[in-house]
Write a structure and sequence with these properties.
The chain has 26 helices and 22 strands. By secondary structure, the chain is an alpha+beta fold. It has a 5-stranded mixed β-sheet. Strands 14-13-12-15-16 form a 5-stranded antiparallel β-sheet, with no helix packed on it. Helix 1 packs antiparallel against helix 2 and helix 18 crosses helix 19. The protein is globular and about 80 Å long.
Length: 704
Amino acid sequence: MSENKVVADLSETEARAELARLAGLLAQANTAYHTEDAPVISDAEYDALKRRNAEIEARFPELKREDSPTEQVGAAPAEGFGKITHAVRMMSLANAFDDEDVAEFDASVRKYLGAPGEIAYTAEPKIDGLSLSLRYENGVLISAATRGDGEVGENVTANARTINDIPHEITGAPEVLEVRGEVYMSHADFAALNARQEERGGKTFANPRNAAAGSLRQLDPEITRSRPLKFFAYAWGEISEPLADTQLGAIKRLADLGFTTNPLTERHTEIAEIIAHYHRIEEQRARLGYDIDGVVYKVDNLELQRRLGFRSTTPRWAIAHKFPAELAWTQLEAIDIQVGRTGALSPVARLTPVTVGGVVVSNATLHNEDYITGLDSKGETIRDGKDIRVGDWVQVYRAGDVIPKVADVDLARRKSDSVPYTFPTTCPECGSAAIREEGDAVRRCTGGLICPAQAVEKLKHFVSRGAFDIEGLGAKQVEQFYKDGWVKEPADIFELKEKYGPGNMAQLKNREGWGEKSANKLFDAIDERRAIPLAKLIFGLGIRHVGDTSAGLLATHYGTWEAFEAAMKTAEIGIGAAWEDLLSIDGVGDVMAASVVTTFHQEAERASIDRLVAQLSPLEAEKPKSDSPVSGKTVVFTGTLEKMTRAEAKARAESLGAKVSGSVSAKTDLVVAGPGAGSKEKKARDLGIELLDEDGWLELIGDA
């Protein structure tokens, strides 16, 4: 069944069914957790389902549903309560499951801010309770609302007033202050409550979180009053004036106003320090007296938080470092090698099925050959250097990941005749040499189009929604047509009508699942894609390192297929005007550029592309439409920007219809030069290009 398959093994039909299944399961879980206070699955299982959904959407972006769980926060408010619309949306948090995820979070913050120096973070326990927003006006508690779906929550004001940790009035606060935090129940109070419930023959609760949520969301406030609820304050929503300049300062201000804040909250300037604090909290977890399921890290400087902003459902400046989920031991029966679209050889562990966190696991990722030998991506030792061998007993964990991982190996149970695993140096699909380039962690098949695995995966990519999106021709049809020898490369798709259309249609319409009507419908859909946007054509070629965004950059820069093709055929890696022009595109680096140029210089690949384009009428790339003063202009930022980072400046310029380049040339319209601009500023002066300082730029675009 599709729910037991790794994402890489799913066909398009299976992926669509799996996304529907996951949407239903997650919607049910959200309602059970947020609305009914009766979870049907564990937090780790919920995280795993959501991560699986995200991975499928990443592989099949065209299948993303309108009710995608990745775009949802919480669940709709329950009937029986009034509704309160949050003045500031209550967001969820992105999750980290290991130290590497935390390091990646820090790197993403620094990259976005352009801040190589010190960045401080707060680290606080992640309380496993019910989120609550308290609104104070002129120091008086006006309303209290649950998170709900993030936009609208339940009005539980009367119930919140019964909680001792929530003051009815506060002194010295801003005129408007929304205090946000978590309602929870201690272990001792939970045990006492369940004992009382049993004595009365009433409902007992599965865990303190359920008890707290169920108690807060009683229609009768007197029932809530009888329940021993507590409240930790840790954030805020709408506010008429800042509480402080930093996260930690704001938390201290909340404490001064009379709110209970968590004493384990600390501020650190090194990632190693916050991870060490995470482990200290993890060690204390059983002794805290209340439930936590991780540690939350937040950028301490509130101005940096503002600049980092938000994604669709999560802030860029915070992440929840979850505690490990359940572990399990099982036997490794085999190691299979899967070959992807780019020829990557990916090892997959086939396991004796075992239940991990409530889910039966039979596969686990082994990443690459170094991981099997006991090395990480940096060549450093993992698992104390223990390698992984077929027949070993291995410890498997999910920790929120959709594809389980191997955490450890039990050497005491290793058979005496076991031998180290030898990673293949030839492709298991076509027998071509599988080489590993210097600096690459992955070994790749060199077979290209003669490799059936690569050919099929490239064809699937070609017909995907982000590329040609041919209605009626999905992954399943591609696999069948390839197997039958009808479609070996993209150009063959556009010859199907000629070969199997009128006069020859019997070959297609008599196939299972096809009739004359469906066959003609497919031929029409193929013909509709002969006139294809340039960006979709470039993306559809499946060139390594070129995603849909990169394809858009290339299309916008060159404008037409003829110009793009001519430039790529002329370009030589590392030298010449065509190469420099390619690298001048902001967002195109050496690796991507070399990959594109190499593709057009490989005889077989180029011939395949030529055969395809002969069947098409590529459309000229659309010019950005905007009435801004920089629309359609090529802008270069150089030197130090003092009021924004380079990433912020680039994003703002592109939103106004400008094209941002990384180098100055005769095609440049405007150079924004900050202190230390150097050679780019000089070249702009020599070429007579308009120069502005940062203030002039902000004034020009209306942001001054």
